[in-house]
Design a protein that fits this description.
Blueprint: H1 9-12, H2 36-39, H3 64-71, H4 73-78, E1 82-88, H5 97-107, E2 116-124, E3 136-144, E4 153-160, E5 173-175, E6 185-190, E7 193-194, E8 203-209, E9 221-227, E10 241-247, E11 262-265, H6 269-286, H7 289-296, H8 298-302, E12 305-310, H9 311-332
Parallel strand pairs: 1-2, 2-3, 3-4, 4-6, 5-7, 6-8, 8-9, 9-10
Antiparallel strand pairs: 10-12, 11-12
Length: 333
Amino acid sequence: MAELGFRTIDEMVGQSQKLKVREDIAHWKYKNLDLSPVLHIEEAREADGVYNQTEQNHNLEEVLDRKLIQAAIPALEKGEAVKAEFPIINTDRSAGTMLSNEISKVYKDQGLPQPMEVKFNGSAGQSFGAFLAKGVKFEVEGDANDYWGKGLSGGTLVLYPDAKSNIVPEDNIVVGNVCFYGATSGESYIRGLAGERFCVRNSGAKVVVEGVGDHGCEYMTGGVAVILGSTGRNFAAGMSGGVAYVWDKSGDFESKLNPELVDLDPIEAEDKALLQEMLTKHVEFTGSEVAKSFLDNFEASLATMVKVMPRDYKAVLQKRKAESEQSKEVEAV
């Protein structure tokens, strides 16, 4: 920087006259490459800056979370239960994140002592419920965008289409891509289909949805994903932990699976109990006809339910189980 005559990085911005184009590259790909439009220095008034000169205003004082925090005062100050309802639009991004920050300041990772339940009506923006704290339940009647439940941290998220809509939920996408990215705990119940990369890097959340796009459960390390419908291609790529259940009514799921790290295992007694619990909640929270149909014909439905299990994770669980049984035998002696 000093050799070029600059004291700071900011001083270097836009000074393309200091760059020299190499003329010694003979590769055919460079033959017609002209960098002059990229290196052109635009004339600017002396008062104009070539890098950002003003602080951005994100209007944080006007975001939806300010209303949520206000509604949560009885919970934050007195530990009381709270119920509220708000409209929501797609520019309301990261709803619940600032609220969860306030909750963590008071209750740390324990979450709220009494439930806070908030109903939203409309179209939720990106990152709805991101990092949502334990004790908070958000319910959306409408639809939602990408990054639903990102970093979910113990909260509960519910989504179902507007009652006035005539769509068939299990045939329509109601939430965008990359749901539950990096989620660590909590639950979610989605009546309808999700986009691509559902549960990517999920490490602890338990979720139900009625179909997903490509790359479902990619890099998942923990948690449970129940998919009551079809998936896209490359399912479970890089999946090293957690478990996924896919209702494979069409019988073609194996062709969409990335088998590098996972196996398809039989449904066991503990799986049945978990599925019954999660699907019962799904019906209760969303009114899902798909989950109701599954439960009404539970044993028959299980015949087409596929369990996706990472091999290394399964080996660890089996080892722990064997050690636990061995310990019990020693104690009995």
